[in-house]
Amino acid sequence: MSEKYPEYANPQMRPRYTGVPTFMRAPYTEDPAGVEIALVGVPFDGGVTNRTGARHGPREVRNQSSIIRTHHPVLDVNPFKLCKVADVGDIWPEEPFELNHAHDEIRAGFARLHAAGAVPLSVGGDHSISLPILRALAADRPVGMIHIDAHADTGGDYMGSRFHHGSPFRNGVLEGLLDPKRVCQIGIRGSMGDPDLWKFSYDSGMRVIRMEEFTDMGWRAAIAEAKAVVGDGPVYVSFDVDALDPIYAPGTGTPEAGGITMIEAQRMIRELKGVDLIGADVVEVSPPFDNGTITSLNAANVMYEILCVLALAVDARRG
Predict the structure, then answer these.
(1) What is the 3-state secondary structure (H, E, C) of 21-58?
(2) CATH class assigned to 6-317
């Protein structure tokens, strides 16, 4: 405690190199009671098909997020004043080597947050974690989704499993968690071993904005169309850092050349002000493959942008 600087009573105002790292220096608690927005890590990469290491993502994003300040100058919002925001720690499976059981443990953890009334903003971990999160948040009705990624993640069986980081949203539709006609996928690109790899997205009615179309139409038109697709109902946001061009996110399992810039990502997320957001995740940060922590830093900034629009959504639901 500083006697000279009373403002340092708030840990978020202290020098950013001090203290124990939490997401954006938010208060830490493992009890979600009274928490409106829960910042939560999911250190699990048992669903990875290429480069591993995303289990280390939450810890490094916490560290890099210490640079985040509280007030958003564009949205003119301080999410920490608008809502009770806390870092609720990690939801981690006690049996991580059995994929289906691990996913069920993750689902149970998010079901506890949901039952407590906390809206989760998660950091993974690989993209397979989105499925158990949706199982917790969308158990009573299908939801819409804005999905920003290099990959559609609607693949089928891979090496004997339907549950991996390339398939969560196919399974989400098949399980009645996602309304595919209220799903928009932005930034899809990259070579494929099978030309029908993402066929499920198109056949089920998802709006897929491939990277070539994105660059032609521009970020503003792309997110406007995404908002029109999801409409007024509840919406989940899933942001895979490999949506970003590898120059902004080299530390990820499946990088793809020719991606979204950081400023395009930030501006698209800001346009989600007014959308009925019920939760979000930022996934596939793999620190062992990072250069100078740039991926973790950018993931922390994406997380902050999402936090701000989530806070506005929570506040709007208060009436």
Answers:
(1) CCHHHCCECCCCCCCCEEEEEECCCCCCCCCCCHHHHH
(2) alpha beta
Cα 302 to Cα 220: distance, rounded to the nearest angstrom? 17
CA dihedral for 159, 178, 302, 31, sign (positive or negative): negative
- Single-letter code of the amino acid located at 298: N
Q: Which residues of 42-71 are buried (b: 16+ CB within 10 A; e: fewer)?
A: bbbbbbbbebebbbbbbbbbbbbbbebebe
DSSP reduced 3-state for 90? strand
With a pLDDT cut of 90, the percent of the chain lying above it is: 83
Cα separations (Å) of 304 from 39, 89, 209, 281, 298? Answer: 10, 17, 24, 11, 10
Model confidence pLDDT, tens digit, residues 173-212:
999 999 999 999 999 999 988 897 899 999 999 999 999 9
Whole-prediction pTM value?
A: 0.96
**What digits encode the pLDDT tens for the residues 138-179?**
999 999 999 999 999 897 676 666 666 667 999 999 999 999
DSSP 274: T
Nearest 10 degrees: CA dihedral of 272, 23, 262, 296? -150
303, two tokens: 């997380």
Q: How do the domains of the chain map onto residue ranges?
A: 6-317
Compute the distance between CA of residue 34 and CA of residue 79 in angstroms, rounded to an integer. Answer: 15
Residue 135 sits at φ, ψ, to 5 deg, of: -60, -30
Query: What is d(CA 261, CA 269) in angstroms, rounded to the nearest whole number?
Result: 13
Structure tokens of 205? Answer: 């009615």
String of DSSP letters for 116-174? TTPEEEEEES-GGGHHHHHHHHSSSS-EEEEEE-SS------BTTBS-STT-HHHHHHH
pLDDT in tens, 17-40: 888 899 999 999 999 999 999 999
C-alpha distances (whole Å) from 205 to each of 105, 156, 181, 191 are 30, 17, 5, 22
